[in-house]
Amino acid sequence: MVVKRLAQGARLSMARLPLLVGKGRVPVAPVHNIRDLWPGDAATGAMLIKGMMTQEGYTHPIGPGMWDNPDFEPAFREGLHSFRWLRDLRAMGTDAARLRARALVDDWLLNPPNHPMVRDCTVAGARVAAWLGHYDFFAASASDMFRQRLMARLLVEGRTIAALLPPECHDWQSLTALKGLLAVAVAMPEYAGFLSRYRRYIDAEVERQILPDGWHIQRSPEVQLRALRELAEMRAMMQAAQHALPHSVALALDKMSPVLRAMRHGDGCLALFNGSHERSSTLVEMVLSQATRTRVVASTMPDGGFVRAQSGRSLLLVDAGAPAPAGYDHNAHAGTLSLEFSCMRQRLIVNCGAGFLPEWKKALRQTAAHSTVEVEGLSSSDFHEDGTVARRPAHVEVDHATREGAHWLSLSHDGYYPTAGATYTRRLYLGNNGHRLRGEETIEGERELAFVLRLHLHPSVCVQPGTQEGTIVLEAGEQTWTFRATGGEVAVEESVYSGGMRPVPSTQIVVRVLPNAAQPAAVGEEIPQAPAGSGEGIPPGPTEDVAPGRRRRVIRWGLERERDGSGE
To answer: Which of 56, 113, 117, 416 could form a disulfide with 67 if both were Cys (CB 3.0 to 4.6 A apart)?
Structure first.
């Protein structure tokens, strides 16, 4: 490790040496044009012209000489020095936006910030890719002196990234570092060492992160989108320079795209698992179109640990895996066996999403912020102070059977065993027309346990009491659904939904079972048995037989759509 750091330090010192003459001359402009592929936000660009920036939930004034402001939070500082916000100024399409972009870049070049984050290879990779991707926007019409400063700095940045490889962390952002190195290699092909160093590390990085079924190892639809976006940009850069795309990148693009399609609801946006936000359906579609020409949707995702069940126009998504492994788990959630359910473009049952600010981020990672069962007020996974997972389920089991358009799921995990001595089993059934979803939640432990089923609802869903006891009517656009539950006390409580930039109020259905109290019989809403010949071995529901010294409690629930005028 000491030798590695010494070698890296020597390479960094070489990267910052004055540029040599002859072969080391700086090109006057990029040899190959690199185009930023993604849309910006004109409203954000207008804020930038006024000297204000919002990044990751934080807002601060920015401007010349303010790059090292000690008040900047790490997340804000990272966004600021990545220069991805250049696309927001470009989205305005005005000369004022062009001049503002040029002035900010020039001030950074004349007064390079000293904060260590500026030299992080992932931040530097995003920065050089943004500078080159927007070169025609802010630099092509600038003075010779400005363009000379920019190209000279790009060369130093490329050398810095090359010196810092391989990155110490191997999450999706390491792909950003490699993308930045590739951008410099394409812009300055006479420096062949950049491209060779990119090729040296890209295969191992992709193989480390992308699982055989196409899931990114961090198990987050948001990360899936971001990693796929980085790889799609690499493809565009290689095409601009007429280079052959590494086989690992081409294969990853083909495998990851069906998974991302599978994790979209009918509105085209992302499901909210493991730190995800909805994101723009337009952006998601643009990333997919840049990544692959096919429109395949993943049908099975065993390595990523997700189940997708679609019947009619209804979609059920279930997190059927433990949180991401160590090293990739800093954004993992305690949402094992949580579900999301939608019909057409309408989301019904959701998870609460992800937070930007630390307090929200911490709260929304807990099991209570997911549509699953919470035992004794505990979470199925615990977290260290640094955000990594301290404890996770050791065993997660899943069986999925289908027959004539209907789906049967049997799932279980032992995440509550170390803290409460309990195991959790969830059985789900989605009818063949998509109009009926049934669930059976079973907690088996060494003692009587308090637990609660939480089904968080999308903010667009209006809740009304049903005509029968234990029923709730959900009004969702033109759709009407009826919820029923037995085995516990049914109530509607406040919730929160953070699928966008900030949390908004919402509601949740809760079915609560108290300890040492007579549990109402869990009758009705039974899940039909998987038909003979399904071949999937879906076990029957819980029987009356319980092992000596064990206690079992069951909640049964159902969600059924009423007929409407559309005939759906």
So the answer is: 113
**Contact status, residue 350 vs residue 509, Cβ threshold 8 Å:** no
pLDDT above 60: residue 21? no
Spatial distance between the Cα atoms of 470 and 489, rounded to a whole number of angstroms: 8
**DSSP secondary structure of 441-496:** EEEEESS---EEEEEEE-TT-EEEE-SSTTEEEEEETTEEEEEEEESSEEEEEEEE
Spatial separation of the C-alpha atoms in residues 249 and 63, rounded to whole Å: 38
Question: Which neighbouring-strand residues pair with 397?
Answer: 412
Residue with tokens 């095409």: 239
Residue pair 176/125 in contact (Cβ under 8 Å)? The answer is yes
- 494-505 burial by CB neighbour count: b if 16+ within 10 A, else e? ebbbbbeeebee
pTM for the model stands at 0.92
The whole-number average pLDDT for the span 46-71 is 94
Between CA 340 and CA 347 the distance in angstroms is: 8
DSSP 302-345: TTTTEEEEEETTEEEEEE-SPPPPTTS-TT--S-TT-EEEEETT
DSSP state at residue 147 = H
67, 47 Cβ separation under 8 angstroms: no
- In angstroms, what CA-CA distances link 395 with 274, 317, 330, 351, 424? 18, 20, 20, 22, 11
CA-based nearest residue to 313, from 290, 337, 346: 346
The CA distance from 87 to 136, in Å, is 12
Distance CA 34, CA 187 (A): 8
pLDDT of 363-416, one tens digit each?
999 999 999 999 999 999 999 999 999 999 999 999 999 999 999 999 999 999
* Helix then strand then coil, % of the chain, to nearest 5: 35, 25, 40
Q: State phi, psi for 285 to the nearest 5 degrees.
A: -65, -35
CA dist., res. 388 & res. 173, Å (int): 17
Determine how many CB atoms are found less than 10 A away from the CB of residue 359.
8
How far is residue 558 from each of residues 13, 344, 470, measured CA to CA in Å?
A: 65, 19, 11
pLDDT in tens, 288-326: 999 998 899 999 999 999 999 999 999 999 999 999 999
Exposure of 184 by Cβ count < 10 A (0-12 exposed, 13-18 middle, 19+ buried)?
buried
